[in-house]
Amino acid sequence: MDELELVNAAIDGDKRAFSRLLASQAAQAYPVALAILDNRHDAEDAVQRAMAAALNSLPGLRNPRAFRAWFRRIVTNQALGIQRKRRNDLPLDGSIHNVASMPVDHEQSMDILAAIEALPDPHREAILLYFSGLKTREMANVLGRPHGTATRILSEAYSMLGAILGPDYAPRNNRHET
Residue 53 burial (CB < 10 Å; 0-12/13-18/19+)? Predict the structure, then answer.
């Protein structure tokens, strides 16, 4: 069965087809979650949550040809949810994490994270993958986009961040490695 046939079978309730679909997507889903979370265990958790969410949401998938992008979006959303929870779980008393000892001003970090979360999905994914250390060719592969398209999206993401954050946050050099 090709991917489209698997998707259609899974939508019709075939659990084996759904399992095969997820197995084929896991190799691409994990790096996306890891790029966002920068923690192996949290990334695995995000992928597992995404699989459960996909199983529950699969009957509502409108375009079976868009399964890959749809599933990648679920993985991204799950990872971002874990990231938000992690950020909200920081102790407020400073006993474990002293905000003053952080290398970047905490308020600036929160501004930057909020700006990244405000980006449209493809731009947010691209910037998070790039910030996680992936080169643009690797990022393009994870996003399932041609290299030129991924580079354009990343450049647009930098411009959008600059517009959201203002000139005080502008990157000194946004030339992208390939």
Answer: middle
| Alpha carbons 166 and 159: distance in angstroms, whole number | 10
CA atoms of 34 and 125, how far apart (whole Å): 12
Shortest CA distance to 154 belongs to which of 134, 105, 113, 9? 134
Alpha helix segments (H runs only) across the chain: 3-11, 15-37, 40-57, 67-88, 106-118, 121-131, 136-143, 147-165
> Residue 164 contacts by C-beta under 8 Å, 6 or more apart in sequence?
115, 118
For 110, residues 6+ apart whose C-beta sits below 8 A from its C-beta are 87
* 47-89 pLDDT tens trace: 999 999 998 999 888 899 888 888 888 998 898 888 877 765 5
pLDDT higher than threshold 90 for residue 9: yes
Whether 79 and 70 have beta carbons less than 8 Å apart is answered as: no
Per the listing, tokens 């971002």 go with: 80
